[in-house]
Write a structure and sequence with these properties.
The chain is an alpha+beta fold. Helices cover 36% and strands 30% of the residues. It is built from 3 helices and 5 strands; from the N terminus they run ββββαααβ. Strands 1, 2, 3, 4 and 5 form a 5-stranded mixed beta sheet that branches. The longest helix is centred in the C-terminal third of the chain and has 14 residues. The chain is globular, with a radius of gyration of 12 Å.
Length: 87
């Protein structure tokens, strides 16, 4: 099976300081959490608030999806947390 990202929705979790997004492997929905440290690494000049982190995510979504796919291919789980070290 192949991981795809047909649903472009994402949300910011201010309590856990991460962006949540979803991928799909056939009928399976896979949750991904992009940690704030990864967002800061990807967008050093972005404001460190919800709007800034979501904008940074949107600007780098292709790179984020590539990393998510690589991590998913190594270990098939139902949820992943992506940190700065993954990029």
């Amino acid at each position: 099976m192949t991981l795809s990202f047909p649903n472009r929705s994402r949300s910011y979790d201010s309590v856990r300081r991460r962006v949540r997004f979803w991928g799909h492997d056939s009928a399976l929905e896979i949750q991904f959490f992009l940690q704030e440290d990864a967002l800061r690494k990807l967008a050093r000049s972005a404001p460190h608030n919800e709007a800034g982190f979501l904008a940074a995510f949107d600007e780098r979504v292709d790179t984020i999806h590539e990393v998510a796919t690589r991590v998913y291919t190594r270990h098939r789980l139902d949820a992943y947390s992506l940190a700065a070290s993954d990029f």
